[in-house]
């Protein structure tokens, strides 16, 4: 059975907003991973806050993606590094890091 990108995104957002998205810290506590460290930077415990807001390696990756999106969109509205746009139920929800939607 193959899932569409829409279904995968919907599942990801459901897990994220309902506390069901696990990180290495969680998998380490479950005994699945040998270390709770972040797979991107290998410096901090991988928590959701670290992964989505603090990890320098992920920030660099996100910067590259945002630059590509801004180049593709060719609009005056530029997505900044401080925000991420997520499409949820046909609405765009802007999530600022460190704040709940």
Query: Percent range for helical residues?
Result: 40-55%
Element-by-element helix/strand order: HHHHEE
For the record, the count of structural domains works out to: 1
Overall mean pLDDT stands at 77
Unreliable segments of 5+ consecutive residues: 85-101
Q: Over the alpha carbons, how many angstroms does the gyration radius reach?
A: 15 Å
The total strand number stands at: 2
User: What percentage of amino acids are in beta strands?
Assistant: 5-15%
What is the topology, as strand order, of the major beta sheet?
1-2
In DSSP terms (H or I, runs of 4 or more residues), the helix count works out at 4
Please summarize the sheet with the most strands: 2 strands, antiparallel
């Amino acid at each position: 059975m193959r899932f569409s990108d829409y279904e995968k995104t919907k599942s990801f957002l459901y897990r994220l907003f309902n506390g069901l998205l696990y990180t290495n810290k969680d998998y380490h506590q479950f005994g699945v991973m040998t270390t709770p460290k972040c797979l991107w930077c290998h410096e901090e415990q991988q928590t959701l806050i670290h992964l989505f807001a603090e990890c320098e390696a992920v920030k660099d990756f996100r910067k590259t993606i945002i630059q590509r999106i801004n180049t593709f969109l060719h609009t005056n509205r530029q997505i900044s590094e401080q925000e991420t746009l997520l499409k949820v139920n046909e609405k765009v929800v802007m999530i600022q890091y460190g704040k709940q939607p």
